[in-house]
Design a protein that fits this description.
Elements: E1 6-9, E2 18-24, E3 27-32, E4 38-42, E5 46-48, H1 56-89, E6 96-98, E7 102-106, H2 109-121, E8 126-130, H3 136-147, E9 151-155, H4 178-191, E10 199-202, H5 209-214, E11 219-220, H6 232-242, H7 251-257, E12 266-267, E13 275-277
Parallel strand pairs: 7-8, 7-9, 9-10, 10-11
Antiparallel strand pairs: 1-2, 1-5, 2-3, 3-4, 6-13, 11-12
Helix pairs in contact: 1-6, 3-4
Length: 291
């Protein structure tokens, strides 16, 4: 077994696919390929997996991810059609679009790259940065005044700790990074208290959902302390970016549209960030100077 190998944990029934990040003696540090999960396991508990021989649970997760992306594309296409109908009703006036701008902070470099690819494919203006979870509060403080986003995503790795007090899931010390996410959300809310002016999407696998909402998130994970898919926060951000400013984001629609569903993410009523403008900016090469 080598660094970079794809593996599953035999003791968990091979339900999550990991890539070996580090091998230390007889223990491997693992990063989920589809879920925002950082774990460790003895080498004896790992089985190497080839791309063409993925377990059923992993194939199903990837199928759901594909369906979620397709649904986003279909919704976007419908929005374009509606815009063209509006243009026809208004004597072919050339409208232009201003989707909400996203600042995406991610504690995993690979997930950040995948997220940026999806933002690009959906034509969402986004600025992505890999930031360790422990540094996110400082990054939020520094970047919000610079980027001035409409939506901020604060995500990475999290999880319920094995060595914790029994049944103590209300305490932030029972989580790997929930306290770091909460601190970052609080900084964001100090910068902008209006939850419709700055939409905050926060959390990762098994994060302290209630604490994130109480600290000021519009959307957060994870109500049932389940693993969330790497792209779930991105899906919510895209939905916020393309929901019209005069409408609230459809909670049931956006939550059920994620890969993890209602056990994985939740949120509160929030206005969208998409605007249309008129007229469309033109090339002004023929304009003559008058002064």
């Amino acid at each position: 077994m080598m660094q970079g190998d794809l593996v599953v944990r035999k003791s968990y029934g091979g339900d999550v696919l990991f890539r070996v990040a580090i091998i230390e003696q007889q223990t491997a540090i693992l990063k989920g390929t589809d879920y925002r999960l950082l774990a460790d396991a003895p080498l004896s508990d790992l089985a190497v997996v080839k791309d063409g021989d993925l377990p059923v649970a992993i194939r199903q997760a990837r199928q759901k991810a594909g369906e979620s992306t397709q649904r986003m594309q279909e919704e976007r296409q419908q929005q374009i059609i509606q815009r063209e109908l509006l243009r026809a009703q208004n004597q072919n006036q050339p409208y232009f679009e201003v989707p909400g701008r996203v600042l995406h902070l991610d504690g995993d470099l690979n997930y950040m790259k995948k997220s940026m690819q999806l933002y690009t494919s959906m034509r969402v203006p986004a600025h992505g940065l890999y930031v360790h979870e422990s540094q996110m509060a400082e990054a939020v403080l520094r970047l919000l005044p610079q980027i001035k986003p409409d939506i901020i995503v604060i995500t990475g790795h999290d999880g319920v700790l094995k060595n914790r007090e029994p049944n103590d899931l209300h305490n932030l010390t029972s989580y790997k990074n929930s306290q770091n996410f909460v601190d970052a959300v609080r900084i964001a809310r100090e910068y902008e208290k209006n939850k419709d002016s700055l939409v905050v999407v926060a959390g990762a696998c098994q994060s302290h959902y209630e604490a994130l909402l109480q600290s000021g998130s519009n959307f957060a994970s994870s109500p049932a302390r389940v693993l969330i898919h790497a792209l779930d926060p991105v899906y919510i951000a895209i939905k916020a970016s393309y929901t019209p400013i005069r409408e609230t984001i459809n909670l049931a629609d956006v939550i059920h549209g994620t890969i993890s569903g209602i056990d994985g993410v939740g949120g509160i009523e929030t206005l969208g960030k998409y605007r249309m403008g008129l007229p469309k900016p033109q090339t002004l090469t023929g304009v003559k100077a008058t002064v």
